[in-house]
Amino acid sequence: MITSSISSIFSYKNPDDAKELVAKLSGTDKENRKWIAREVQNIDLQYYEKLLSDEVVVKYFGVERPWTNEKIRNRLKIWENRYNEGHPHGAFTIFDDQNKFIGYIVAGQGDEKGVSELAYVLSCEYWNKGIGQSVLSKIVEEWGPEVRRIGLGEGFENLDKQYQVIQKKFQCFDGEILKRFYATARPINISSWRILEKVGFESAKSDVENAEDPIDFNVKGFDLPLLDYCSQLESFIEELYKKQEIKVDKRYFMVNENDKIYTFSRMLDGRTRFHYEKEIN
């Protein structure tokens, strides 16, 4: 089928109606092995079912327990429908250069206007190979700016009716142009939040309850268990909640011994999350 390209990343199978969007990205891991990512498709279901039923893989992701097949099918259908309708926010399925499934990354719609929430999951055999950072970098440095550019209508020779339709399709972040990325990570999932920081994410600054008075992690006020540093952070946050110093689903600043700011929350289901964001240039 002939597609109509609108950029190096995006093209349409049905350009007249700006539907059936095709998206492609590629890069290399830290050993220079190539990966390829494309828009999620129905044929990917078998890969996602296997990946998201793996207890080791999902331990630090989302609800931190295996997904049901029904939930996986429903989620893939949402992402697939967005591409079919011509919108860019959804999942990329990632393969190696031998067409072996690696995992996926989601650049979806966030809870705020103009915000895309990022999350990614890789098969265990591809951990610690630099793929997560490489894929995330491509999303942040190429996909995001391109989505924003098209949403603004920049680079189009003329804004005729067809390009106006395309431009509208890319203003899909609660009806607005993409302006910011958002992501969360458990404190004990150190590799995840370090990757976010390496690609330019900073602790989220929006909706923070104690912006003028960060909680000092050094003034703990109780004996921490003999755990690694990141586990201590989670234990500290849980103790704050038990002592009613923080509330559920509220964001707070915490400063560590090096004066580094973390934005964190304790969620209703007991999970602890760091919150990160990055503006799109």
UniProtKB/TrEMBL annotation:
Spans through the membrane: none
Single GO term (MF): acyltransferase activity, transferring groups other than amino-acyl groups
Pfam families, alphabetized: Acetyltransf_3 (PF13302)
Residue ranges of domain N-acetyltransferase in the record: 43-225
Superkingdom assignment: Eukaryota
Protein name, per record: 721_t:CDS:1
Source organism: Dentiscutata erythropus
